[in-house]
Specification:
With about 120 residues, this protein is α+β, with helices and mostly antiparallel strands. The protein contains 3 helices and 7 strands; from the N terminus they run ββαβββαββα. The protein has a single domain, classed as CheA-289, Domain 4 (OB fold (Dihydrolipoamide Acetyltransferase, E2P)), CATH 2.40.50.
Length: about 120
């Protein structure tokens, strides 16, 4: 899904850019760059969203671009606890011939406080 206008959500957690309308559903937009400490940059109309589901709600992740979608069997993933215990937000890493894929855990993407605040602001 290509970028659309994001409506700001007052008092939302800092990593929530706002909300978008996806087929009549209000979906919060997460700023992945901010969560992982990457340099900020202005959004463009060619930026894309990845729509994902957590156990609480549907979310949109702003990404610079999408190279493709692949399926990785769970047994191909090396758990983050085996690589470096205590890695926040990271479920594990998949080794591929063309590089490494870091698997993020969306269930832990927001802190408990951020999740509660977002839940009050956007009806799940």
């Amino acid at each position: 899904m290509y970028a659309v206008e994001i409506t700001e959500l007052p008092k939302a957690p800092a990593i929530v850019m706002g909300v978008i309308n996806v087929n009549g559903r209000v979906v919060p937009v997460f700023n992945v760059r901010k969560r992982f400490g990457f340099p900020a940059r202005e959004m463009t109309t060619t930026d894309q969203f990845i729509l994902a589901h957590t156990s609480h709600r549907e979310v949109a992740l702003v990404v610079d671009h999408v190279r493709g979608v692949i399926e990785c069997p769970a047994e191909d993933m090396e758990a983050s606890s085996e690589i470096l215990p205590g890695l926040e937000y990271v479920e594990g890493v998949v080794k591929r011939d063309d590089g490494l894929i870091v698997i993020h855990n969306l269930e832990e993407f927001l802190s408990i406080e951020e999740e509660e605040l977002l839940g009050r602001l956007v009806k799940a």
